[in-house]
Amino acid sequence: MRTLLVTGGAGFIGSNFIRYMLKHEPDIRIVNLDKLTYAGSLENLKDLPDPERHTFVQGDICDGDLVARLLHEHRVDTIVHFAAESHVDRSILGPGAFVQTNIVGTFTLLEAARAFWLNENPLDGAPVRFHHVSTDEVFGTLGPEDPPFDENTPYAPRSPYAASKASSDHLVRAYFHTYGLPVTITNCSNNYGPYQFPEKLIPLMILNAQEGKPLPVYGDGMQIRDWLYVDDHSEAIRRVLHGGRPGETYTVGGDNQPPNIQIVRTICHILDELQPASPHTPHEKLITHVADRPGHDRRYDIDIAKIRSELGWEPSEKLETGLLKTVRWYLDNPEWVAAIRKQQEYQRWIDANYAKRR
Ligand code: NAD
Ligand code: DAU
Predict the structure, then answer these.
(1) Which of 137, 232, 297, 301 is catalytic?
(2) Which of 85, 102, 215, 272 holds its CA 20 to 30 A away from the CA of 91?
(3) 121: buried, middle or exposed (CB in 10 Å: 19+, 13-18, 0-12)?
(4) Is the pTM value of this prediction over 0.85?
(5) Is 137 tagged catalytic?
(6) Residue 302 gets which letter from DSSP?
């Protein structure tokens, strides 16, 4: 039985990954280290399959003693590192936490893994792996005719969030080259699906539309992201854990590149169909263009040729069906939505980010 330390496992992608892995990998145990910032919630971990194989620990990845203790106590052989400050707009209004968690936190984990696996080496030569979950935002922005990002695209981050993730990627690679720590990295595009915190585009639009609130589209709404259903991301990481080569990077994307405005309109149409009696139908009338995000990356696109050819991975969810499932999930889980919304922090953030944009 392998033992994974998953960091940030009470957040959006981490909790979906834990659910996915417990379902598909009967021979693993998971220790989940999460600080429970505004973005993490135990609500995301209810109804896990086989919950006795999951141990939750509330704590900070910047706490080196805690990380070292967990590696020893649980004899961890695999680290899957999701924990991060993840929202670009928050990084614009307050970059400090991004430097701390995304850079110092990743460094702390790398040091603990190096000490435990390479210096002390108590696992009798069993294979070990440090997998770092990163983002396509490290590559910057594409013009209309540019080729997609791939594993060889130079780094050109443009937000404090992207710069902090780029920095952490460099540290992870340095630990491979300098110390021989067996690392892998995935740089993935925009995820969507259940349990995403409603500060991000898709859940924010679903919940605002349902309540008849304005749908704040930044600028002209023609920015392009490459959308990936979260379970497809989990499967990509699972393949990299099984077959990825140490020291290698894999770019992961959904092969879906509609402009933001089209995503918002599709959500409106889905809600019109699912809730024809709503007083807010047609929901499109709620769309409001607001001031743009500073330094807003215009377009992302991902080349998945490497992970497809080496590991046989490709996205399985189509955007239309994935969005329908996602809207349904938010409508079917009012208790989850209420628990998130009642945090004072959530309303504080909505006021801070949107008041000045109107
Ligand atoms: P999220 O904000 O939903 O969750 C982050 C989690 O990390 C939360 O549970 C939070 O409590 C925890 N956390 C934050 N600081 C911590 C600390 N110091 N110590 C321990 N735990 C801490 O983020 P997400 O969207 O699930 O993203 C997860 C990872 O995937 C991030 O590294 C992000 O950069 C990367 N990523 C996200 C996307 C996306 O579209 N969401 C795409 C590509 C890559
Ligand atoms: O590309 C991967 C990245 O995707 C991840 O690394 C980040 O953690 C994740 O948050 C996401 O970043 P984005 O900035 O692309 O996601 P967000 O949902 O914040 O915004 C998606 C697009 O929608 C972006 O072009 C900005 C726009 N937007 C967003 C919000 C919140 C709006 O137009 N209005 C909004 O209110």
Answers:
(1) 137
(2) 215
(3) exposed
(4) yes
(5) yes
(6) B
Place 125 in a pLDDT band, splitting at 50, 70 and 90.
Answer: confident
- Are the C-beta atoms of residues 266 and 323 closer than 8 Å to each other? yes
Residue 1 has pLDDT above 90, yes or no: no
* Distance in angstroms (rounded) separating the CA atoms of residues 8 and 59: 10
pLDDT given for residue 358 in this prediction: 73
| Domain extents in the chain | 3-189+228-254+299-317, 198-224+258-297+318-349
Residues paired with residue 229 on neighbouring β-strands, in sequence order: 192
Phi/psi at 295 (5° precision): 65, 25
Tell me whether residue 43 is one of the annotated catalytic residues: no
CATH label, 198-224+258-297+318-349, candidates 3.40.50.720, 3.40.50.980, 3.90.25.10, 3.30.230.70: 3.90.25.10
Q: At 2, is the secondary structure helix, strand, or coil? A: strand
Residue 330 is encoded by which pair of tokens?
């938010």
Which protein residue has the closest C-alpha to ligand 1 atom 5? 11
User: 201 CA distance to ligand 2 centroid (A)?
Assistant: 6
- 20, 161, 195, 330: the catalytic one is 161
Q: Mutation test of ligand 2: which of 201, 215, 218 has the most ligand atoms closer than 8 Å to its C-beta?
A: 201
